[in-house]
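#struct-help
A.M.: can someone run this one for me? Single chain, 103 residues.
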Amino acid sequence: MNLVGKSKEQIEHAIRHKKRQEIVEIIYSLATCEPFFKPQEIADRRRMAKGTVLELIKNGILRAHKPFDNVVLVPLSAIREWDRDTALFFSGKQNEPNESPNE
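D.P.: on it. Structure tokens below:
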């Protein structure tokens, strides 16, 4: 059963004759399938060069799978780990150039 891209009404219509256990199995199968991204997709979304993403993979900073020759796939969990380890925002007030740190 493919529920991707369906509206709530279409999903309701598709599962109306299913038993509760069947619905739980469908939800479980959808929830346990982790999405994978190609390095180019990551580069496009992060506004980086594809080579930079491949370098992160090569250096072990970004975990990836290589199921076939010339195919590299990065799981969403690896991207989230990378985000946790990357400082994107700074907390606290930054000092103005004329301010001293003690003010």
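A.M.: thanks! The beta strands are 36-37, 65-68, 71-75.
D.P.: also worth noting: The mean pLDDT is 84.
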